[in-house]
Amino acid sequence: MSVFPKISLRLEVENYLKANFLNKEVVSAFGKQEAERKFETLLQNLSHPPSFTTVRVNTHLASVQHVKNLLHDELQKQFNGLSFPVLQHPDLQDVLLIPVIGPRKNIKQQHCEVIVGAQCGNAVLRGAHVYVPGIVSASKFMKGGDTVSVYSDIKGKCKKGAKEFDGTKVFLGNGISELSRKEIFSGLPDLKGIGIRMTEPVYLSPSFDNVLPGYLFLQNLPSAVVTHVLDPQPGERILDLCAAPGGKTTHIAARMRDQGEVIALDKIANKVEKIKQNALLLGLNSIRAFCFDGTKALKLDTDTEGEPPFLPESFDRILLDAPCSGMGQRPNMACTWTLKEVTSYQPLQRKLFTVAVELLKPGGVLVYSTCTVTLAENEEQVAWALGTFPCLQLQRQDPQIGGAGMMGAGLTSEQLKQLQRFDPSVVPSWDTDIDSLRDTRTEDMIRLANQDCIGFFIAKFVKGKNTKVSIKNFSNLLYPSGMPGLVDQCDP
User: Fold this and answer.
1) pLDDT greater at residue 33 or residue 81
2) What distance in Å separates the CA atoms of residue 58 and residue 198, rounded to the nearest whole number?
3) Which end of the chain, C or N, has fewer beta carbons within 10 A?
4) 349-366 confidence digits (pLDDT tens)
């Protein structure tokens, strides 16, 4: 049973998403009532965290079994001897799954309250403590060591430094304050550590703050699937066109056994530094990260000696984990974006896709992915790509863990089966406690982990050999005019 309200959206955005999930093809196939039920389930599930925390083992430095043993010991320390199962995914051998306990409904709310921002609140629901920058408000007499109740200001209405807040807030659990109210709001810029240490969260998830650094990378399940679908091989030259924060980049390098070259591009400098830091932490030397706009990564004349931009047909495989509306991210209790913002990504995605096709060698693999649920950014992009680039062939994916693509973009049933859509609407709300875990079969937990994750989409293409890209008005595709304002790329 749900404890949080469904995700709060602007009416224009909710109607837009509803039109996606109740399009003519879907309604014709499943009926309007079933389509409406799935859409309401989607809105409800988006506000709740997935049923499992997913971590990827850095197989470049250690074996999965060794890290699994270390993680099991770490979880017992975190939860005072409580035994959490750590499952190795049968189809993704470098992925470990830890069930999330909750929602827990018998937590007594305290008189002393702390209000946090929505993004901070989302992190708490996935196992994080509350860091000082995320705190918006605290009760007047809060002192260090007090037991406090933590709430999320999901609509962003609470004023910084307020002593009380009567607006819309969602209870996240209880914790112990590390600082007094005065210390938190003193204005000292160096206060960046933990402000509230969560002791009774509504959702009990492990904290991965500085846990087994170098061995583990916290990553949503579909994001880990992407690299397996790309299937990078040792010695290849691979491009991650929109790479920040580097989870997939480092996964690619690890799957290649750090043999070959992985080029990572992002146009924001501090995100590129994060990629480099992650590569260093994980001991990966094959990654070269550049602060560069992926839409300008193609150069048609002289070589730039391994730095962007690149000549056509320079890469064996390309990952385009495209900037997107992020409407599949969980948990997310409220989104204030306008319809213009939500729908602004399609032109940018096509621009990046066009560059990727040109940079890919004949016979090479291109994987396109997003962390959103809209038709326009997913299946419609596949239909557009197949119609625009005759050299591309849609390919079956291995492993196939997500469901088929959504109807509504004019793709055939066979083409839809070649896609992977991770759809939060396919499972009902799920409550988990320790007792139920003991009685649940491993295969049933794996099945739930595969289904109850973030919203995500993957398509895999192969560029035909002995085929040149033939695009009418190539410059118009690469540099479309009238592109709407774009919101920055979401983190995977």
Assistant:
1) 33
2) 28
3) N
4) 999 999 999 999 999 999
Q: Specify the amino acid at residue 270.
A: N
- Average pLDDT over the chain, rounded to whole? 92
Cα separation, 219 vs 52, in Å, equals 11
Strands lying side by side in the sheet with 95-99: 87-88, 95-99, 52-57, 216-218
Across-strand partners of 174?
A: 149, 200
291 labelled catalytic: no
Among 158, 371, 391, 490, which one carries the catalytic annotation? 371
The CB density around residue 307, as the number of other CB atoms within 10 Å, is 11
CA 178 to chain centre: 30
| DSSP string of 225-276, one letter each residue | HHHHHH---TT-EEEETT-TT-HHHHHHHHHTTT-SEEEEEES-HHHHHHHH
Sequence-distant (6+) residues with CB within 8 A of 467 are 362, 390, 391
> Is pLDDT at 304 greater than 60 in this prediction?
yes
250 is written with which tokens? 């480092």
Could you tell me the two tokens for 306? 């391994």
Q: What is the pTM of this model?
A: 0.93
Q: CA 441 → CA 57, 87, 275, 444, 447, distances in Å?
A: 23, 11, 38, 5, 10
Contacts of 371 (CB under 8 A, 6+ apart): 220, 222, 223, 324, 326, 328, 329, 454, 455, 456, 457, 490, 492
Backbone angles phi, psi at 39, to 5 degrees: -65, -45
Contacts of 308 (CB under 8 A, 6+ apart): 263, 265, 290, 292, 296, 297
In whole angstroms, give the CA distance from residue 124 to residue 114: 13
Question: Can you tell me whether residue 147 is helix, strand or coil?
Answer: strand
